[in-house]
Amino acid sequence: MKLRLHDSWKPYLVSEFNESYFTSLIRFVEEEYKSGTCFPPEDQIFNAFNHCTFGAVKVVIIGQDPYHDDGQANGLSFSVNEGVKHPPSLVNIFKEIESDLGIAYPKSGNLERWANQGVLLLNATLTVRAHQAGSHQKKGWETFTDTVIKTISENKEHVVFLLWGGYAKKKAKLIDAKKHTVLTSGHPSPLSANRGYWFGNRHFSQSNEILKESGGQPIVW
Questions:
Q1: What beta strand segments (E) does 66-180 contain?
Q2: Which of 61, 75, 129, 132 is the Cys-Cys partner for 40 at CB 3.0 to 4.6 Å?
């Protein structure tokens, strides 16, 4: 499997590629893709890094697993391909943006438009077996993506990290909160959102205010 990720990340991550855990991980992923259907498509596994270069990172949104149903996952957390029905969590993300910023609910659930502006849409696990949620967890992806988070924290400044739900909140320990901003809330999934832990968090307007205060361009959500 070719490691198709943008050259800007390689100086920071090349040492990981030589680690024994990563070699085992790639071997496992290759076997999984050969023996059955997995998501996202193999050439989109590192899409988060290809649409958002290292230098461009302004906001990091951490998901857990790629979508595992046909045609959904495109390598960006919470994002789905053009024309695909919006999953419930994405529906609630768009509803919060609508109320927070007054932006009309979009037709497309493809979040490449965010990634291209410097939003790293990072799943903790980058691959999954079709229709089997969590099937590629604890194989090494989390070690790799934790390193990505730490690398951003150590080598950049004024990044906004959006940690939604209990799983993502655990990543706060990897982030230097003196250099960066960490915003937390409940997860946008219906279970959490309907209990009042998601709606009204205003993370999108807050992110833009923080970016402007540090001299950066706000995100067109």
A1: 119-123, 128-129, 160-164
A2: 75
